[in-house]
Amino acid sequence: MSSRRVPLRPDPLPVAVVDNHTHLDIRRDDVPDPVAIDGGGDRSTEEIAAALRTAVEVGVDRVVQVGCDLPSARFTARQVELHPGMLGAVALHPNETPALAAAGELEAALAEIERLVAHPRIRAVGETGLDYYRTGPEGHAAQQESFRRHIDLAKRTGKALQIHDRDAHQDVLDLLEEEGAPQTTVMHCFSGDREMARECVARGYYLSFAGTVTFKSAGDLREALLEVPLESVLAETDAPYLTPTPERGNANAPYLLPHTVRGMARVLGVDVPTMCRAVSDNAERVYGPW
Ligand SMILES: [Zn+2]
Questions:
Q1: Ligand 1 center from residue 242 Cα (angstroms)
Q2: pLDDT tens figures, 10-55
Q3: Burial of residue 234 (number of CB atoms within 10 Å: 0-12, 13-18, 19+)
């Protein structure tokens, strides 16, 4: 019998924080959905509002909603107008770009992303980057071209860049160096080692940690976190994925971020209010005021 359920609310955080990266539009059908009110179909505005209220009650009062294909980017641009606690990021996810390129649709899709990024409440270009885990070598050239274009877009618009990097650490770093990184660059769901963390900090990037940092097996990631000064750190859910301990196996949502923030405070040896203030202040510096 499955033990999967909608996770309990954690104790509220003492200082309100930001969820740096969440996908409130994505439903999972393999586990009970903590955001659902009315079942299937596209997420309703009421469901999003309720999910944000639940998060506020545990001290997560601001989120960055990430739209990573065209339907989800359009959804994000609509929803950021309706919820004061929500800012947005839009891009074409690296796992989306090979198919778009093969269909001859990449240019048109990039043009639409550029229009959506101009929205005053869309504050980041993301998630873009490289994913060599889900995409084979035949798709790498398209991913790299798309990544370059997104870097350029972030620089031209002055928005932050949110990077997805899965099993592509060196190429991500090399490509950023070649192109010249935007003023504000965020490694979303950081998954590198100590050495890579040091390199990212030296370059002035922000490192955002997800629920993975609480996993028992993630000793290397906690070592990497130790390399990151408080002024460079962010926290995120990447909901509905990467649910933190002790709720692994259930679906993730922004109200579960306190588990990750408390885990990060333990690793860094700081008290929870200090951790919260760092996460909150850094996000406001990256994205501007909500
Ligand atoms: Zn994501």
A1: 10
A2: 999 999 999 999 999 999 888 888 888 877 778 999 999 999 999 9
A3: buried
What distance in angstroms lies between residue 108's CA and the mean position of ligand 1's atoms? 22
Cα(64) to centroid of ligand 1, in Å? 10
CA of 254 to the centre of ligand 1 (A): 13
Phi, psi dihedrals of residue 62, rounded to the nearest 5°: -140, 145
Residue 126 Cα to ligand 1 midpoint, Å, equals 9
pTM as predicted? 0.96
Å from CA of 161 to ligand 1 middle: 13
CA 113, CA 279: separation in Å to the nearest integer? 28
> Which chain residues have CB less than 5 Å from ligand 1, an ion?
238
Q: Are 67 and 75 in contact (CB under 8 A)?
A: yes
For residue 94, report the distance from its CA to the centre of ligand 1, in Å. 11
Calpha distance 54→193 (Å, rounded)? 34
Domain ranges of the chain: 17-287
DSSP notation for 109-160: HHHHHHHHHTSTTEEEEEEEEEETTTS-GGGHHHHHHHHHHHHHHHHHHT-E
Helix ranges (H only) for 180-256 are: 194-202, 219-225
Is the distance from CB of 68 to CB of 23 less than 8 angstroms?
Answer: yes
3-state percent breakdown (helix, strand, coil) of the chain, nearest 5: 45, 15, 40
CATH code given to domain 17-287: 3.20.20.140
Find the 152 Cα to ligand 1 centroid distance in Å.
20
Query: pLDDT tens digits for 71-86?
Result: 999 999 999 999 999 9
Return the SS3 of 83.
coil
